[in-house]
Amino acid sequence: MALRIDDRILAVLLGIVFSVVNAFVYMYLALKLGMATGLDILLLFFAFFVFAAARSARPRAFLYMVAVMAMAIAAVLAYTDSLGSIIMAGETLPVPGFAMAAIISMSLILGMLASSYFTGYFMKSGFPWPGPKVSVSIIGLLSAEKKGPEFKASAVRMGLAGVTGGAVSGLRGLRAIPETLGHAVAGFSLSPFLAGIGMIVGLRGSMQIALGAVGSLLVLYLAEGGAADYIAHMRSPWIFSTAVSMMVITAGLSLFMVLKPLLVSAWHRALHPHPRGQGSPESGGDSRNRMSRLAYGALLLAATVIAAALLYTFIGVPVWLFVLCIPVAVLLMVIETRGRAEMAMSVGIAAFVVILLVGLAFQDIVALLLFQGFVLATTLGFASTLSLHKVADVFKIDQAGLRYMLVIGAFIGGLLCVPCISLINSMYGIGTEALPAPYSVMWLEMARSAVTKVLSPSINLYFVLLGAVMALILYKLKISAISVALGLLLPVSATAAILVGGIIRWGAEKKGWLKDDAGIIASGLVAGDILVGLLFAVTTLL
Q1: pTM score, whole prediction
Q2: Phi, psi of 34 (to 5 degrees)
Q3: Which residues on adjacent β-strands are paired with residue 435?
Q4: Is 407 exposed, middle or buried (0-12, 13-18, 19+ CB in 10 A)?
Q5: Which residues in 47-201 belong to E strands, given as ranges?
Q6: SS3 sequence, 360-376?
Q7: pLDDT for 500-528, tens place per residue?
């Protein structure tokens, strides 16, 4: 007789183990490309076999495991570029390991607690939530009592894609084929995981990134004579200032779109107030909800005080500055979550806003970069919590249990960040051609300018103005300025491979070959390439 293990215990254990693996992959890809994806779908399939053996393959088990992973990965994504910038600057962390872990964990928990006040808005406003829909589809497939042909087809697709990605990665590792045809600035990367990312973002997203790459090539050959290496090219004011400006202006437009309906509604209520005395008596359910909100308010206040004390004691962030950033952080949380709810895309503007608004108040670049990571982590913790609430609503899973899993994930993420980036730096070297870390370069240049009060050579006000104009034009044309800016910053070789992935997906969809795929083939390519590449890297390191 098969042993049946409590699915919550098994979910936590798998969530912790898979978080370690996934954290490395997410961090590596973020530093390699400036965009991050991981092994989420592949790990869900692995989890199925474990849960099935323990007779626990139910939606709750999968969701609890995903919750632990999601919160841990939110920590990794939030702090990768900050920690990468600190390493590239040649600085060391002034914070003891236990304190750093506590600061990271508390930033995520703050975001989770704050999300409870926005649950009604995001759950009941008719947002499409494409990301949670994919999660619901896959969890529903894996937890179904009877596995039909769809399950077998998905497993075969995942396996074949993984073998293909791993085979190409193995050939590169054995030097049978090159990493890139040409060179990084203007070539073609033979990378299955880049093609997989192209399949994930689709043809439209890939073409928008490619549009930025065209601009990058024009700068390379017309302004730089075709001779610049990738790092120098990325730090050129033509590239850096234009791309950063496009992202910041897009952030402002996103903020306007979020605030506009709220301001209009507030104005309408002010002009047409409801008569007093017409409310209904408070029901028992309303009373319980009010008590729950009060309890959450007390927890949120306590967490805020603890976070302020940690930041002041170990990083030197003034309490007044922390309090000043609270409303800014709330706005960033709403913007980030709107991006996920509408497009399944991270808006990723918190770092820009923090550095631009409060950077001048700092004298230490390390403190500024760590505070930037803290605000970004609260934003991602907020958005991740609401995304998982959406999945829990579909399967009618207890929200209280989900919150416990999120807290566990927050602590795991706090423990993983620093050791993980230290290992990656020792294996590849952050800031080298192997790991160009485009966002870390941006944060470092902006943070240096803020702290020294001197504009970096990478920042040119004319190109900042050019980027602003381009962002507005692209907005009117309904083209993502964030994607175009990313194409400017990424190596053209990487963008070329992403575009090929987008074309493959478009062609396969036209033929009807990707029906109900839900990103399985793309995830297999990414997983195969990364796992085999990691094997070669570890072998070389040993």
Answers
A1: 0.74
A2: 80, 5
A3: 430
A4: middle
A5: 180-182, 187-189
A6: HHCCCHHHHHHHHHHHH
A7: 999 998 988 887 777 666 677 887 887 78
